[in-house]
TrEMBL record:
InterPro entries assigned to the protein according to its UniProt record, in alphabetical order: CutC-like, CutC-like_dom_sf
Protein name (record): Copper homeostasis protein cutC homolog
Similarity comment: Belongs to the CutC family.
Source taxon at top rank: Bacteria
Species name: Leuconostoc falkenbergense
Organism lineage: Bacteria, Bacillati, Bacillota, Bacilli, Lactobacillales
Amino acid sequence: MTIKIKEAAVDSADRAQEMIARGANRIELNARLDLGGITPDTRTIIDTLTIAGNIPVVIMVRPRGGDFAYDNTELNQMLETLQIVADLGGQHVTFGVVRSGSLDTDMMSMLIETADTLNLHVVMRMAFDEITKDQQQAAMQWLFTHGVTRILTHGGVLTTAITELMPQLEFLVDRAPVGMTILPGGGVTHDNADEIADVLGISEVHGTKIV
């Protein structure tokens, strides 16, 4: 399968510029990639959107590292971030709320509805991998019916090489609703991206070293 979208995860405007120059045609913007990515500051968002021009920039909405079960204060921070992103001209955001191995549909509903009101396109972040495998298919369907058409996933725990998780990624690709994109990430590089895309029959890949 020919790769059409190479999404580079970056933590600065300079890094975004570098990755675009190398051929990345979508950016995921974070702070603290060492924590798995958290919300970047306003200046970084402005600079990256300016540098990217017509290239889509997906902005991380995550108030802290650690798990993906947020309290109400953190939820309000995330809702405020959505407003800030919209005010700055952003169009794409990524977040995920998972509690005790299940998608937190109450908080996700609030976040998705707010994003919709602000005309922000929502991507389910890699928190998806915290959902127990027996609930992932139902979670995909719930997300799709709520307008989320792309899920970033490693297929399992990040400490396991993505090449060892291909069966689970194939399962997700095969069972995803028609029109939903499964975006593999976490260990996808310019060296193995083509092979992974061929095996999964996908055309979009994600990584910090994707180009």
